[in-house]
Amino acid sequence: MPRIRQYKKICDRCGRPRVKWKLQEGRKPRLVCVECIREKDRERDQKPYRRHKKSIKASGLLPENIDTLYDIQAHACAICKRKTVLVLDHCHSCLKPRALLCGYCNRGLGFFYDNPNLLMTASAYLRGYCGPVCVREATSTA
Question: Rounded to 5 degrees, what are φ and ψ at 62?
Fold first, then answer.
């Protein structure tokens, strides 16, 4: 029975020959080994919040200001109070920064087009449809 030969490719990040690799999409496709991807993920997960260059640059905030905001919010999302990776939320009209939110809350606001009236309608819908038994209270952290 013929043996299947594994071809080693050179990792674009570390330069070592690797058997397991992944083609990373982006501006320039790169061959990156699985070990380098895991290492980068570990580094990213150690950061308390993500610094989105576009929103920070547009808002005019300095990284020190974001660190202060992070401390003021007690390292938690401004809406659900979960301690997780946070992103800078901002107004899409004037680009004014609002607070640091978790990804779920930030996307939730975006899905409702940052419209408080839609959010109030959705809240009334949930409370009226399910009643107080099914709806999680704002104080719970799930």
Answer: -95, 155
